[in-house]
Amino acid sequence: MFRxxxxxxxxxxxxxxxxxxxxxxxxxxxxxxxxxxxxxxACFDCHANGHxxxxxxxxxxxxxxxxxxxxxxxxxxxxxxxxxxxxxxxLKTVEDFTEFEQRAAYFDGDPVxxxxxxxxxxxxxxxxxxxxxxxxLLDFPPAPKxxxxxxxxxxxxSPAELHGQEVFFGKGQxxxxxxxxxxxxxxxxxxxxxxxxxxxxxxxMVAGADGPIKTFxxxxxxxxxxxxxxxxxxTLDDTVEFFNLILGTKLTDQEKKDLVSFLQTL
Length: 266
Hints:
The chain has 266 residues and is mainly α.
């Protein structure tokens, strides 16, 4: 399919992204989650077609068990413009993240168990580099209503979408972190959501502070529910209401509705 389109390095990177490697729950040992022995999982099993399947997993670098956060699988679309990787770990390159996933996250941060289950450590200069080179080809989906500067073209947008853009850059304060044209500031912010609740155990998991969270790009956001780093918000309407409460912006029902309309154009 990609002959004559991708160069040999990129093809090899794609092959590796599609190759199953052993993981904590899916492997050939008796200590696994799957009913039958498995060769493992591939990167694109979760990042389906370079995007996301919306699945979530538990972060591997926190103990005890009840403090482990849930993390949603982010889309790889537009990964080439990002400068931070991982919702909280702040890894600096896509190579770092690729290597981290293979060495640690796949095995819940346990190198002894990883050796038992067949970890395949990728070579940084060739395999990891090839995988990252392919990932950086993945682009955002088309947004025909946006200009080259990332804002709405008035000739193409509806009144509701234009009003939503006004709210986004004004009263809603969304652009404080989500800057055009890709709608991210490539930074991390602490929303301090714990202001609104007391630490408690819910379904054997501690609901506590999240700490600094990466600003994810909003380009193509309509295609990747659920939202937030842990998938806690099922729809864009939920997300707008969440930030309306967190930021205290006191948006009206019409402003919320139009803001969602604008987000769907990105």
